[in-house]
Amino acid sequence: MSEIGKLNSADVLVQALPYIKKYYGRIVVIKYGGSSMINKELKEQVMIDVVLLSLVGIKVVLVHGGGPEINDMLNKVGKESRFVNGLRYTDEETIDIVQMVLSGKVNKELVHLLNMNGGKAIGLSGIDGNMMFAEKYKKVDIGFVGELTKVDSTAIKDALSKDYIPVVSTVAAAADNEKEIYNINADTAAAALAADLGAEKFILMTDTPGILRDKDDQTSLIPEIELSSVAALKNSGIISGGMIPKVECCVEASRRGVKQTNIIDGRVPHSILIEMLTHEGSGTMFVN
Question: What is d(CA 18, CA 235) in angstroms, rounded to the nearest whole number?
Answer without folding.
Answer: 38
